[in-house]
Amino acid sequence: MATTPQAPLRLSTQKALAHRLILSTLTGRPVRFEQIRPSSLTHTGLAPHEISFLRLLEAVTNGSQFIIGLTGTELLYKPGLITGSAPGSGASGGVIRYELPAECTRGVSYFLIPLCLLAPFSKAPINVLFTGPGVITSATPSGDLSADSVRTAILPLYAQFGISNNIELRILRRSNASTSGRGGAGEVQLIFGHQVRLPKTVHMLNPGRVKKIRGVAYCTGVSASNNARMIEEARGVLNPMTGDTYIFSDVSSAPYVTSIDKSNPNRRRKTGVGFGLSLVAESSTGSLYSADLATPPAGGVPPEDLGRQCAYQLLESISFGGAVSLAAAPTVLTLMAMGSEDVGRLRLGKYVLSSEPIIGLARDLKAFGANGWGVRESTTGLDGDVVVSVVGRGVGNVGRKIA
Amino acid sequence: MAPALGKRKRRDQISDTEINRESAADDRSVSLQALFRQHFESTFEPLPCTFARPPLVHNIDDKSSDEELESDWDGFPELYEEQVETVHYATSAPSKADVSKDEFKTFMSTRPPSSAIEISSTAKRKQPESTDNDESSTDAANLKKDLALQRLLKESHLLDPQSTLSHSGQNRHKALDLRLQDMGSKTSVFAQQKMPFAQRKGITAKAIEREKLRRRGAQENGIILEKVAKSRKDDSTRKRGIGAPSVGKFQGGMLKLSKKDVAEIEGPKKIARHKR
């Protein structure tokens, strides 16, 4: 750490801000963001969820600084050490209690997925409890996964990197997005207790065939028959494809939030009413494809439509091919780039590789000093998949190295 | 909500056929009135009911018979006004038996679902594999028969002449005792534990005498018997006097150490030469 301070990397716009901040923290390179929503008249600069994410980074790291410009359109971030939920750094009883404000429009997976990427490189286990009036556990219209999908489609992939012990994601209270799309008052706890020096090198070249489909239908504050109707319709689409389809149903009451108005402080109101569906297809080689859909904040979608659309979304995700779906690809590619100095190979669908987030990730990784990717056509299989070779950085867990 | 949906659907059907009906005969004025009424009700709100409605079903049936190509809907059954249309959404609710409890636990627990189910399923599959393999099964059967034969030879003297090949009652216990001794039990279960010392001496003396008699008789008749098993002297721990040295032999006011004693004191020799 006593080396000469590097000049901050200059990046522009708010695009993939969370992931860029994660890369900055993992590589230890300071980063400067410019032109964050400069032309927006109503929401100039950093959005509430981005500020929340910065605060979360500050909670799990030690010595990180961020300086936000006066207008909010510029941000300088100097990363610190990833300490996790070590005692003495804001954790009480080993748990960091993290409150999301009511203005948050993104689902809790916006915070969970990057935090999971930091967790293997942490010094101490990460144990964060997300509470507050801003936690939306369901999928959101902005494209966030539901917390269920994070648990069933993202976290199992860490096992391939040799990170499998003591990982838990507890959905303590469910919540959909509330009517305005902001906030939900759910509660989620992430326990990530497996820290490694370096993630293993992986070769995911065989996508296999989809052999089973599982899912969770959830509803908060509405009739459980909505779940049954979603499941019925989704099974109607999926059953002809795979015999082994089962969707579990989870019914919960709507969370309450205390009202803000001063005249009647005891009045509580319901938020986050709605329902949604999370589907995961598992192949014979352990590849996972997921789909997520929840009621829009305005409502007005019958559960049949939602179930059918979600099933189609899953089929679409499978049709893209590759050993990793689009939702999980950034996680897998980042872990590969942070692995040992060895060539890991990953088979991706052409559409997945050419999608904007993945291309953006490749550029970001290069900007942060990682090696470039090698891309070649997959020789096996009939469909035109692509094999991406990623060389790890070989630095790994700085906290582990010192300790 | 469900009945309302059903009702609206029904009205739509009627309003479709309504256009055709305007060109039809005028003598059905009563039913026409009813139709207008229904059309009004479908667009606005229900009118207060003042008269009994004539059955509309008739007309619709006639129409459909006239123009079959219009739709294949053949009307509601009679007295449909009284019947409440019910719509079942969850007709085939998936039964809980579809998935095992383990699966629920692995998928719906707080941990990310792993492939633990596969392991359990393969464990279950192993059992039939072992039975269908004929070579191993014949081997097992042969071993079983062999064991039965061995036992029969050893325990045949216990068998009742009347009974079958299995032991019963006291004989079963005796056979079991024999098997235990065969496997290495020191004494018989039936050996008496407590008895007067004189009696025990008498028993051992009698056993020795009987053995001597047997050996002598065999020698006289020229029969070669098994060798006498020598009872080994238990001299592993020598008794030493109190305060005496624990090693060597004290002889003539001098402690003599044998080569073995010296070697034991010195311990294993280490060959460690460090030439510099």
UniProtKB/TrEMBL annotation, chain A:
<keyword id="KW-0690">Ribosome biogenesis</keyword>
<feature type="domain" description="RNA 3'-terminal phosphate cyclase insert">
    <location>
        <begin position="206"/>
        <end position="319"/>
    </location>
</feature>
<dbReference type="Pfam" id="PF01137">
    <property type="entry name" value="RTC"/>
</dbReference>
<dbReference type="Pfam" id="PF05189">
    <property type="entry name" value="RTC_insert"/>
</dbReference>
<dbReference type="InterPro" id="IPR016443">
    <property type="entry name" value="RNA3'_term_phos_cyc_type_2"/>
</dbReference>
<dbReference type="InterPro" id="IPR037136">
    <property type="entry name" value="RNA3'_phos_cyclase_dom_sf"/>
</dbReference>
<dbReference type="GO" id="GO:0004521">
    <property type="term" value="F:RNA endonuclease activity"/>
</dbReference>
<dbReference type="InterPro" id="IPR013791">
    <property type="entry name" value="RNA3'-term_phos_cycl_insert"/>
</dbReference>
<comment type="similarity">
    <text>Belongs to the RNA 3'-terminal cyclase family. Type 2 subfamily.</text>
</comment>
<dbReference type="InterPro" id="IPR013792">
    <property type="entry name" value="RNA3'P_cycl/enolpyr_Trfase_a/b"/>
</dbReference>
<keyword id="KW-0539">Nucleus</keyword>
<dbReference type="InterPro" id="IPR000228">
    <property type="entry name" value="RNA3'_term_phos_cyc"/>
</dbReference>
<protein>
    <recommendedName>
        <fullName>18S rRNA biogenesis protein RCL1</fullName>
    </recommendedName>
</protein>
<dbReference type="InterPro" id="IPR036553">
    <property type="entry name" value="RPTC_insert"/>
</dbReference>
<dbReference type="InterPro" id="IPR023797">
    <property type="entry name" value="RNA3'_phos_cyclase_dom"/>
</dbReference>
<dbReference type="GO" id="GO:0005730">
    <property type="term" value="C:nucleolus"/>
</dbReference>
<dbReference type="GO" id="GO:0000479">
    <property type="term" value="P:endonucleolytic cleavage of tricistronic rRNA transcript (SSU-rRNA, 5.8S rRNA, LSU-rRNA)"/>
</dbReference>
<feature type="domain" description="RNA 3'-terminal phosphate cyclase">
    <location>
        <begin position="15"/>
        <end position="346"/>
    </location>
</feature>
UniProtKB/TrEMBL annotation, chain B:
<feature type="compositionally biased region" description="Basic and acidic residues">
    <location>
        <begin position="229"/>
        <end position="238"/>
    </location>
</feature>
<feature type="compositionally biased region" description="Basic and acidic residues">
    <location>
        <begin position="12"/>
        <end position="28"/>
    </location>
</feature>
<dbReference type="InterPro" id="IPR027973">
    <property type="entry name" value="FSAF1-like"/>
</dbReference>
<feature type="compositionally biased region" description="Basic residues">
    <location>
        <begin position="1"/>
        <end position="11"/>
    </location>
</feature>
<feature type="region of interest" description="Disordered">
    <location>
        <begin position="90"/>
        <end position="140"/>
    </location>
</feature>
<feature type="region of interest" description="Disordered">
    <location>
        <begin position="229"/>
        <end position="250"/>
    </location>
</feature>
<dbReference type="Pfam" id="PF15375">
    <property type="entry name" value="FSAF1"/>
</dbReference>
<dbReference type="InterPro" id="IPR053030">
    <property type="entry name" value="Ribosomal_biogenesis_FAF1-like"/>
</dbReference>
<protein>
    <submittedName>
        <fullName>Uncharacterized protein</fullName>
    </submittedName>
</protein>
<feature type="compositionally biased region" description="Polar residues">
    <location>
        <begin position="107"/>
        <end position="122"/>
    </location>
</feature>
<dbReference type="GO" id="GO:0005730">
    <property type="term" value="C:nucleolus"/>
</dbReference>
<dbReference type="GO" id="GO:0000462">
    <property type="term" value="P:maturation of SSU-rRNA from tricistronic rRNA transcript (SSU-rRNA, 5.8S rRNA, LSU-rRNA)"/>
</dbReference>
<feature type="region of interest" description="Disordered">
    <location>
        <begin position="1"/>
        <end position="28"/>
    </location>
</feature>
